[in-house]
Amino acid sequence: PGTLYVVATPIGNLGDITQRALDVLAGVDRVCAEDTRTSKRLLTHFGLQKRLVALHDHNERDKLDQLTEWLQSGESLALISDAGTPLISDPGYHLVQHLRELSIPVVPIPGACAIIAALSVAGLPTDRFVFEGFLPAKSAARKQAFQKATQQTCTQVYYESSHRIVASLRDLSEVIEADRRVVLSRELTKMFEQSFSGTASEVLKWLESEPNHQKGEFVVMVQGAFPTEASQGMALEPLLKLLMAELS
Ligand code: SAM
């Protein structure tokens, strides 16, 4: 069979496309794209004219048979999304899972991803982090999601849209400790790229201070929970026993 290449595209700055992505896109028989108009513009920019197949959340399952047939007949395909790495809060999961079951080769062509770009400049620990995806749209559900996620001791990462960024930060500031560090990255790799770091209420104030700060695409990162008394206690107990034994 042919191969499905899962190709990362830029998250803003077109200079972030990789040479390998261009070579693979030039070589495949068809390109599966989330939004064919957006992808056509991207491909045209790089002088590529390809057969495009729409593959989005609403038709992904219906397209499986057709895509599998093409691959089994020896065609090679590329999967791209509107921006960044496919499958990361973007379509493609059902296709990749299906092809893996059939042992059809699936090969990554890595590149830009907003989570990784944001973490690399946040100044928060990155040895362990959890990606929580998009936050719920309604405030009550969002607060609940924050309450649960922010208990984790590793750095937490969320995607958020401009419509809800202020409301989300307000909810976050009500849920976490006042001294937890929050970093907001907006418009990464684009003209008005900014990353702002502070407490949740400082970040909220920064957003509210200037309407332009609320525009664009956002990654929200939250410092991991401080170790709780319970977990400290667990570590301290054996130590205390040792000390007591020394003293007696
Ligand atoms: N697959 C993409 C990736 O690899 O990052 C993510 C796609 S998801 C549908 C879109 C969300 O990613 C946006 O709402 C925003 O939270 C985040 N995002 C994408 N591009 C971004 C950028 N240039 N700056 C900040 N966040 C971005």
TrEMBL record:
GO cellular component assignments: cytoplasm
Catalytic activity annotation: cytidine(1402) in 16S rRNA + S-adenosyl-L-methionine = 2'-O-methylcytidine(1402) in 16S rRNA + S-adenosyl-L-homocysteine + H(+)
A molecular-function term among this protein's GO annotations: rRNA (cytosine-2'-O-)-methyltransferase activity
Residue stretches making up the Tetrapyrrole methylase domain: 3-203
Keywords in alphabetical order: Cytoplasm, Methyltransferase, rRNA processing, S-adenosyl-L-methionine, Transferase
Name of a matching Pfam family: RsmI_C
Cell compartments where the protein resides: Cytoplasm
EC numbers: 2.1.1.198
Family the entry assigns: Belongs to the methyltransferase superfamily. RsmI family.
Biological role: Catalyzes the 2'-O-methylation of the ribose of cytidine 1402 (C1402) in 16S rRNA.
HAMAP family referenced in this protein's UniProt entry, alphabetically: 16SrRNA_methyltr_I (MF_01877)
Stated name of the protein: Ribosomal RNA small subunit methyltransferase I
Native species: Leucothrix pacifica
Gene designation: rsmI
